[in-house]
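Hi C.,

You asked whether I'd gotten around to modeling the 298-residue construct. I have! Everything is below, sequence then structure, no commentary in between.
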Amino acid sequence: MRILPDYPAHALHTAAVGRKTEVWRLLLGIVVMIGLYIVMALFYQQIIAEFSRLRPTFQDELIAGSTPLAMFVLLFSFGLIGTAVFIGVRLVHNRPALGVMGPLILAVPQFFRVAGMLVILGVVLTVLPPYGMGGPLVPNLGFGRWAVLLPLSLVAVFVQISAEEIFFRGYLQQQLGARFRSPLVWIVLPSALFALGHYQPAEAGQNAVMITLWAGMFGLLMADLTARAGTIGPALAVHFLNNVTALLITSLPDSLGGLALWHAPFGLEDTEQLRAWLPVDFALMIVSWLAARLALRR
């Protein structure tokens, strides 16, 4: 019995790998990328440390993402991951770095088609009941300041989500898909690693496992979209709109809320309220995935 569907378009995504599909090359690529990231991160952290001498509270702001500046520093730091992947692909695989995204001639229009569909979906969900998140939203940034920061905020969020998609649905899924025929390998393994990267028991407490499961499901759905489209364009769109909503529109007050227009009426420490909201978030994720699939069929 077939567990997962056939993905004929996935051949478009894996074509960039060519014949260099050896597992050792994949592992070497990961090692090189991690090494590059560590080196760049050390320089980045040194700059932050120097700035923190001028602003003693900045390290605390950075940990919580509680101010716009701290959020920009955090989000743009993900660019180091994307840079490490691009350099690693060139060094280890000797192929064009942008190839990890799949054919760009398809990825770009797919991104905008899915993003357009999700914007429409977001508008519809906003006007339909039930309303609210179990309590009144708490204003964070004033609208004027939020609007001025919005263009840079959107760029920062895109840098953050693109780094994750480029590594997990781009590099890992692409290399594994070129080497192994079974989707159980190239869909499940990157998604499991993506989920583990979101396991934060110190911050999320008793909800850490549920948040990790949410991330794992999100990874599986984005891997599915990538396989159906032959590029990471749709996954980029879903991830981007999801994080724009979660980081720039309504965020948790005690976690990465510095750029949000509003804060939710509960935080990570509110175990029961957050746990009650997570099933709704799961449902929204599934609906977004279905909407993306519909956009790809147009």
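If it helps when you're writing up: The mean pLDDT is 90.

Thanks,
B.
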